[in-house]
Design brief:
This protein has 14 helices and 16 strands. With 404 residues, the protein is of the alpha/beta class. It folds into 3 domains: 197 residues, inorganic pyrophosphatase (n-terminal core); 45 residues, no CATH class; 145 residues, Roll (Diaminopimelate Epimerase, Chain A, domain 1), CATH 3.10.310.30. The longest helix is centred in the C-terminal third of the chain and has 20 residues. It is globular, with a radius of gyration of 24 Å. The chain binds manganese (II) ion. The site of manganese (II) ion has 6 residues, from loops.
């Protein structure tokens, strides 16, 4: 086949009627914006579309259009589903145990009468799709619970892979992967333009434009990160012309913060550390920070960009977060000479050249922070030509700078 990935995707979408659009777990503005923009556009073409990611939409993004169509589960092909119509009951609790080789499920009404046998309906789950489109997903395990619950559908149903991560594994039947794009949303916009000319139908309305612009704005840190390209600015101008609600996006994503979030950011920014010689800036969010401020986990969204803007002279910016038993790291680099993707790779992670991340299970930040910083120091020392025993010496450091 000598057609481009974009043409192949257009053909697959033309042939498909029931389409599943998936974003990565812990979905961000780019994953959600891409998925919902595609969902709205494909529905305009008469397709039946479901969009999903393994985790709910962060509170920050609850202004986005079409959110009611964003699911956190898809019915598995092997699932037996039991429906309990709530009727007058407020809610219900579910308990289960396995006893003598029998799975026993109890359903207890909350407020209202007990359930009776004849109220209950049985159904069989079926993953009834003829095409899967993954957006902003570097590899299938990044789909999280959606992949774990339905691994077979990714072999039975053709998969389209639309992404911009440098670490993308090319897992699709068709791979539209462009690592020079600042966001997956930009790639979705290019796809929508192809679909518009192919079907001779306008797909880019105000809601679709707002969703795509959200992806671009969140992945470029509102055009502040070094991954911002002339193309992302051009496309954003087109989107605003098409009616994208840029002020609404900025207001929700950057200007509205809960008190608990401000307290958390204050704590994290007050313990910011700067290794001037190695040009590394970092800070940490410990379990104690979350506990003391009562902030939710998503309160750290955007915090790495705040570190970045508070770190002139830094080439590597790192934020370490404790999430349960796991330490997760977000990395940004400010010069093309240092790859965030490569540094994240030292810790089993990956991402883009200027932005990447990693996860280290079963560790406490306090225990692992020095080791992580030391490894990054080694990378920087090598690149900057620093000799380990001399870096504490201010004078020599300045001399080194002069020589550059
Ligand atoms: Mn992205």
């Amino acid at each position: 086949m000598n057609s481009t990935p974009l043409q192949q995707i257009v053909n697959l979408l033309r042939q498909s009627e029931k389409i599943l659009v998936l974003g990565h777990q812990n979905p961000d503005g780019d994953a959600i914006g891409s998925a919902l923009a595609l969902l709205l556009a494909l529905r305009k073409l008469g397709k039946s579309v479901i969009a999903a990611a393994a985790d709910p939409v962060p509170e920050l993004l609850d202004f986005l259009p079409a959110l009611e169509s964003f699911e956190t589960t898809i019915a598995g092909a092997n699932d037996l589903i039991i429906n309990f119509p709530l009727a007058e009951r407020a809610s219900a609790e579910v308990f289960h145990k396995i006893e003598d080789g029998v799975l026993k499920i109890s359903v207890r009404p909350v407020g209202g009468a007990p359930f009776s046998k004849d109220e209950i309906e049985f159904a069989v789950g079926e993953a009834d799709f003829d095409l899967i489109v993954c957006v902003d997903v570097p590899d299938l395990p990044q789909l999280g619970g959606l992949f774990d619950a339905n691994p077979n559908i990714f072999y039975d149903i053709p998969v389209v892979n639309i992404d911009h991560h440098a670490s993308n594994t090319g897992f699709g039947k068709v791979n539209f992967v462009d690592t020079t794009a600042a966001s997956s949303s930009e790639l979705v916009l290019r796809l929508l333009r192809s679909l518009e000319s192919e079907f001779n139908k306008k797909l880019l309305d105000e809601d679709v434009a707002t969703l795509i612009l959200t992806g671009i704005i969140t992945d470029t840190g509102s055009f502040q990160n070094s991954n911002t390209t002339p193309r992302s600015l051009e496309l954003s101008a087109d989107l605003i012309e098409a009616g994208a609600r840029q002020q609404e996006i900025i207001r929700h994503v950057y200007k509205t913060k809960q008190l608990s979030t401000l307290k958390l950011w204050g704590r994290v920014l007050s313990k910011i550390e700067f290794d001037e010689a190695h040009r590394i800036v970092w800070s940490t969010v410990t379990s104690e920070d979350f506990r003391a401020t009562e902030a939710v986990e998503t309160a750290t969204d955007g915090l790495i960009d705040e570190l970045l803007s508070n770190a002139p002279g830094a080439e590597v910016v790192l934020l370490l977060k404790q999430k349960g038993a796991t330490v997760s790291g977000s990395l940004r680099t400010t010069t093309p000479a240092v790859s965030a993707n490569e540094i994240a790779g030292l810790f089993g992670g990956g991402g883009h050249h200027a932005a990447a991340g990693f996860k280290i299970p079963n560790k406490k930040i306090e225990a692992i922070e020095p080791e992580i910083i030391d490894k990054i120091r080694v990378v920087q020392a090598e690149r900057l030509g620093l000799l380990p025993e001399k870096i504490e010496n201010e004078k020599q450091k300045k001399d080194l700078k002069k020589q550059k």
